[in-house]
Design brief:
This protein has about 425 residues and is α/β, with parallel strands linked by helices. The protein has four domains: about 30 residues; about 70 residues, no CATH class; about 80 residues; about 220 residues, Rossmann fold (3-Layer(aba) Sandwich), CATH 3.40.50. It has 16 helices and seven strands. β4, α13 and β5 form a beta-alpha-beta unit. The longest helix has about 70 residues.
């Protein structure tokens, strides 16, 4: 079987091994091979007719060379059926080779490599497409951030214009209403106008002098403010370390009392004379309109809010807005304390109330309490304060003396104490 030309080869062992392989191959059932693919000839088209005519014209004496040139130039534009047929025959040969004992595994391994390469190409294309999509997303995100950056100043400007329009409406309402002698402002006490929009320094000095004359000394006011400390110190958010905001802090007597008790405090004032006096005492105050100051705080960011003799300086729509904003910025369990002159005392409502030319109108206790309850405060109480000395009261006993004392000598001030519950309030 083999020519024994190489003395180093054991031809007998090699011939036995070959015979064993052939015997095992013949004994095993042959793998069924697929039939040779048959293709239906494509229908004759104008293209095929033109090429057949060109082949015939090659024999003609004159136009033969032109036909040959045309055949050569149109060879790349053959119909794709031949290429598909070649692919089918290649698949058929591969299937036959994979059935051979030795060559088959090698062919299968080569086919696998081809498939792996093709898969890698597809994965590369998918990865490139994914990178393009991620880049597009980043571009869109940057565009969105740019639009937001452009929109923020516009939103702030619109909000500022809205506040200006609201203030103008309130001034028009005040000046066209009954009993209003001038623009309404918020103050710190009888004889003050610390929320005044006046820009004349002489007027600011006048209001400070008016306060010093009618309200009493700073020591006396600070001593009288101690009655409010239990309402603030018992407030759970304040005990947790949240700040107390005093609107219209004036000369700062109340701020000083709270700071001495170790509570975190902040004050808001517009009168530059009063602001300087607070700063000289080292108190944390800043110049701002009280409504702008409230709107600058985040929701549920304060433990308590106080305002002494401020409410009577505000037109009623603005007062409702202040109450609503106070409810928003107070933490659950936070407390609002408003002190204002008590018009139940006829002497206060008809006389001493008008010592301050910036007062708008007296506020009956029942009205202020209803407004707080309507807006959503959970617990609302009224505390009547600063009674008239007994020397001014009618000494006689009886119904007439009791009635006179109740109308003429009732407590001169009252405090609204409103606590925020867990639920939200309503918008007026």
């Amino acid at each position: 079987m083999f020519k024994r030309t190489n003395p180093d080869i054991d031809y007998d062992a090699l011939e036995r091994r070959v015979n064993e392989i052939l015997a095992s191959t013949e004994a095993s059932a042959p793998e069924a091979l697929p039939e040779w693919p048959t293709r239906t000839p494509p229908p004759e088209t104008l293209w095929s007719r033109a090429r057949r005519t060109a082949h015939r014209m090659r024999r003609w004496p004159v136009v033969g060379r032109g036909a040959q040139w045309l055949i050569e130039k149109t060879r790349p534009f053959r119909p794709f059926g031949i290429r598909s047929e070649l692919k089918d025959r290649a698949r058929y040969v591969v299937l036959r080779l994979r059935g051979w004992p030795v060559v088959g595994p090698v062919v299968g391994w080569g086919v696998g490599l081809v498939r792996v390469g093709h898969t890698r190409v597809l994965l590369g294309e998918l990865q490139a497409q994914q990178e393009r999509l991620e880049q597009d997303l980043q571009d869109h995100a940057q565009r969105i951030e740019g639009l937001r950056a452009e929109l923020d100043p516009v939103t702030a400007a619109v909000e500022q214009r809205r506040r200006e329009v609201q203030q103008l409406r309130e001034r028009v309402t005040l000046q066209t209403g009954s009993g209003a002698a001038g623009p309404a402002t918020e103050g710190d006490g009888v004889g003050t106008a610390h929320g005044s929009t006046a820009v004349d320094p002489a007027l600011d000095a006048f209001y400070e002098a008016l306060e010093d004359h009618f309200r009493g000394s700073e020591a006396a006011i600070e001593a009288s403010s101690h009655a409010y400390r239990p309402w603030i110190e018992d407030c759970a958010p304040v005990q947790a370390g949240m700040a107390v905001l005093d609107l219209g802090c004036g000369r700062g007597e109340w701020l000083a009392a709270l700071a001495a008790a170790g509570l975190p405090v902040e004050g808001v004032e517009t009168n530059p004379v009063a602001l300087q006096r607070c700063r000289d005492r080292g108190l944390p105050v800043h110049e701002a309109d009280l409504l702008d100051a409230l709107q600058g705080y985040g929701a549920e960011s304060l433990g308590a809010i106080t305002a002494f003799h401020v409410a009577e300086h505000l037109p009623f729509p603005r007062l409702l807005t202040v109450l609503q904003e106070s409810l928003r910025v107070l933490a659950p369990g936070g407390r609002l304390v408003l002190e204002t002159p008590n018009p139940e005392n006829l002497n206060v409502g008809a006389h001493t109330f008008h010592l301050d030319p910036t007062h708008v109108r007296p506020l009956p206790p029942s009205l202020l309490a209803f407004a707080a309850e309507y807006l959503g405060f959970a617990h609302v109480t009224v505390e009547r304060l600063h009674p008239v000395p007994d020397a001014y009261r009618a000494p006689e006993e009886g119904a007439v003396a009791t009635h006179v004392n109740a109308r003429l000598y009732a407590p001169q001030d009252y405090a609204l104490i409103a606590t925020k519950g867990e639920e939200e309030g309503r918008t007026p």
